[in-house]
Specification:
By secondary structure, this protein is mainly β. Among the domains are: 94-252, no CATH class; 676-759, PDZ domain (Pdz3 Domain, Roll), CATH 2.30.42.10. The chain has a 14-stranded parallel beta sheet with strand order 1-2-5-23-28-31-35-38-41-44-47-50-53-54, with helices on both faces. Strands 4, 21, 22, 27, 30, 33, 34, 37, 40, 43, 46, 49 and 52 form a 13-stranded parallel beta sheet that branches. The chain has an eleven-stranded parallel beta sheet with strand order 3-6-24-29-32-36-39-42-45-48-51, with no helix packed on it. The radius of gyration is 27 Å and the shape is globular. The termini are far apart.
Length: 760
């Protein structure tokens, strides 16, 4: 009943944005700069009036951000700010008029005094490239070009004044990225830096995936630019044939264009923005510094449109492109807001974010390794206050090619929120997950009919859908967590109050999992989804029911489950054998599934699947993405067909341009052979798979996995990764074999355990 009421509330909210409230209605033509004063003038005279503000056609460059406060919407009426569809553009930039002169090497320059920082340059509407090394390469996988020597001493020595330059680097374990501002150079040609706080799992930058920008000496190819702030000169190297005389030149200026600012007691109400294109906002990567509880994320609470303390508000049918940060951000208290029918692409940050305030979380922790004693935990159920998004929706949005600058991003990001509806979105071409649920607080989300693919393109150990659940009950030390979960199993549901539902989605991830429920993710119902490549992973957590899914060319990946986890995996179709890692307990029920062959079924039946079957599921037309099952044997397992023609956007203007995933050729299941080595009744092997890397938390594949600890154990435990024996670094099995005779009770062993290196 509660679920049905939620759908009714969302539907009513959509209607409310566009249905007149009783009261006088004024239809007014305005420029963006007039929006605030016009609202104040009319609402002071007619507090309950409806305002339909029609923003005039044209490109508008704001002197300041449009700020709507609660006092401007505290009557009974609604406010709609709408553009002339396709003709109204609000820019976050500022026009400048450089007087270009020839400088050298095909580079032009102009004396330009810009009194604020800018990080983007547009020539005739096209974004240009800030001087960088390596040069921009549209075909490169990472950062449009990355190089290990980007900050080598030799290269740094060639720069005269690199202060103000930036380093962008992937996280060492490929869990997002970092950004640093160069503040100086040391005598040994190493750099002085500030920044590096943009990722909540501090492990340092990647040793090779990095680039530098805003360095004058790196201005060496067409379409690059550099602004010398000290001497007030703008340098630009145009492409051959470009006529700079009369070219329109714009530089970025504002981070936000519209801010709806209220609070829980006095929210901005009944305000809709529609039919406007927003572009050319400044980048915010150096503002991304707030950690989101114990996830891998840090966040900047801002966007082209920021909604902070709102109720019954909407952003509809707008375009967001060529912006440096997030598109739409709902922060703190927000109720019954809807973000729908928007086109979000080619931006630096996230698509749509729903992020609550940590002051609503009971006993919050903010870094992976932090812990607290049970005696100090607030064990009450649910949030402490209302400072979080609840019953809001992201519906029918086309989101692609985001995360152009920041790499810890998502098409839809949910953190410290409740009852968020994510429906009929098409999300693709991005560096990390398409949809990310940051932690268990507070569940109740419904994620359905989305089409999410070409994800995790620049990072690793992630999925098209990703979640964490490092809530109050979760501990980084597994032994401690096992003990707490056994003593207080009810604590798991104190944050993940209501189940999160994933249903009727299509996912494809070629660099991770299609569905990845990572550390602690609990209280999920996952059914009737199509997984096209990466399979479905459940790391340790509780009360996950996975049923009626189709997993193409892959399988089920259970990792390091708890005893009495309550997990269920039934009525699913898999196309390879299960791929468990560190599994000693098999949940509540694993049965009635359909395997590709007798071999994989027999392996599963050692522990599970007594009533499962095998064979060809007889898909109707897999080459066209129709995985309707025709096999009667498969249907007898309890699998039920579901509609596979409703994934992604439905709005006509978006559907005609939205891409679809590549539908893979079906492959015959094979069992991969792995090489292991036995020593003193223990078993050791190289780290070979993404699953092994994920289960151990390793940043790379360098080390030897202890599948089974030897006897005597020398301090080793199952699941350890041996990194060093004495002073000898161990990266693969052969290196361990070469020094194994040196191991004794006095040996100094360095292993990776609990996602950190320790010395035994």
């Amino acid at each position: 009943m509660k679920r049905h009421l939620y759908f009714i509330v969302c539907a009513c909210a959509l209607v409310m944005h566009f249905c007149p409230v009783q009261g006088q209605t004024f239809k007014l033509a305005v420029t963006p700069g007039e929006v605030g004063p016009v609202i104040q003038r009319y609402r002071s005279k007619y507090p309950d009036c409806n305002l339909l503000l029609q923003c005039k056609p044209g490109a508008w460059y704001l002197d300041s951000t449009i700020v709507i406060t609660a006092s401007m919407t505290n009557g009974k009426g609604y406010t709609v700010l709408e553009g002339a569809a396709g003709k109204t553009v609000i820019s976050g930039g500022q026009k400048i008029q450089p007087n270009w002169e020839t400088w050298k090497n095909g580079i032009f320059r102009a004396a330009v005094d810009v009194p604020y920082e800018f990080d983007q340059l547009y020539i005739d509407g096209q974004q240009q490239v800030r001087a960088r090394y390596p040069n921009y390469d549209a075909t490169a996988r990472h950062y449009h070009g990355a190089a290990a020597d980007a900050i080598s001493k030799e290269r740094v020595a060639s720069w005269k004044h690199p202060e103000g330059g930036y380093i962008h680097a992937l996280h060492r374990a490929e869990w997002g990225g970092y950004h640093y501002r160069i503040t100086g150079v040391n005598a040994d040609s190493t750099l002085q830096l500030e920044g590096g706080y943009q990722n909540n799992r501090q492990m340092g930058m990647h040793k090779s995936i990095r680039f530098v920008e805003n360095i004058q000496e790196e201005l060496d190819t067409a379409q690059e630019w550099f602004y010398d702030k000290a001497n007030k000169y703008l340098y630009y190297k145009p492409a051959p044939g470009t006529n700079l005389k009369g070219a329109a030149v714009v530089v970025s200026r504002h981070k936000e264009l519209i801010v709806l600012k209220g609070n829980a007691a006095h929210p901005v109400k009944n305000f809709t923005v529609k039919d406007i294109r927003f572009t050319q906002c400044a980048a915010t990567f150096m503002d991304t510094r707030e950690p989101l509880l114990r996830s891998d994320w840090a966040i900047y609470r801002g966007g082209v449109i920021l909604m902070d303390g709102t109720r019954n508000c909407a952003v509809k049918n707008c375009d967001f492109n060529n912006n440096g940060g997030n598109a739409v951000f709902l922060s703190n208290y927000n109720r019954r807001d809807t973000i729908s029918d928007n086109y979000i692409h080619d931006i630096g940050g996230n698509g749509i974010c729903f992020v609550g305030n940590p002051d609503a979380v009971r006993s919050p922790l903010f870094e992976y390794g932090q812990r607290q004693d049970f005696s100090s935990i607030d064990t009450a159920r649910g949030p402490k206050n209302s400072h979080y998004p609840d019953s809001c929706a992201a519906i029918d949005n086309l989101i692609h090619d985001i995360g152009q600058i920041e790499k810890q991003v998502a098409g839809v990001q949910i953190s410290m929120s409740a009852n968020i509806l994510v429906r009929h979105n098409s999300i693709y071409n991005l560096p990390r997950s398409g949809i990310n649920v940051n932690e268990g607080t507070w569940g109740g989300h419904i994620i359905e009919y989305n089409d999410v693919f070409n994800t995790v393109l620049e990072t690793g150990d992630h999925g098209s859908f990703n979640s964490w659940g490092r809530d109050r009950w979760w501990y980084p030390d597994r032994k401690e967590m096992d003990s707490l979960a056994a003593l207080y199993p009810w604590l798991v549901g104190q944050d993940a109050v209501s189940p999160t539902i994933l249903r009727y989605n299509r996912f494809r991830c070629d660099h991770g999992w299609d569905i990845d429920l990572d550390d602690g993710s609990s209280n999920y119902e996952i059914y009737s989804n199509v997984c096209l490549h990466g399979g479905l992973k459940l790391r340790e957590g509780f009360n996950r029911k996975v049923s009626n899914n189709i997993i193409i060319n892959n399988s089920f990946h259970p990792h390091v489950w708890f005893k009495n986890s309550g997990d269920v995996f039934v009525h699913n179709i898999v196309m390879t054998g299960y791929q468990p890692i560190g599994i000693h307990y098999w949940g509540k029920e694993i049965d009635h599934n359909y395997f590709p062959d007798l071999t994989s079924l027999n392996v599963a039946q050692i522990f599970t699947d007594r009533n499962s079957s095998y064979g060809d599921p007889q898909f109707s037309n897999p080459g066209k993405g129709d995985y309707h099952v025709n096999s009667q044997a498969a249907l007898r397992t309890g699998f039920r067909n579901f509609d596979q023609h409703q994934f992604g956007v439905t709005a006509a203007r978006l559907k005609k341009i939205a891409q679809q995933p590549v539908f893979p050729e079906l492959t015959i299941a094979t069992t991969e052979q792995t090489i292991s080595w036995d020593w003193k009744n223990g078993t050791f092997k190289n780290i070979e798979t993404l699953g092994e890397r994920s289960a151990t938390g390793m940043p790379d594949n360098e080390g030897v996995l202890v599948v089974k600890a030897p006897q005597p154990a020398f301090g080793l435990k199952d699941g350890d990764v041996i990194l060093q024996v004495g002073n000898k670094k161990i990266t693969q099995l052969n290196e361990l074999k070469a020094v194994v005779d040196q191991i004794n009770s006095n040996s100094k062993l360095t292993v990776f355990r609990g996602q950190r290196a320790i010395t035994l």
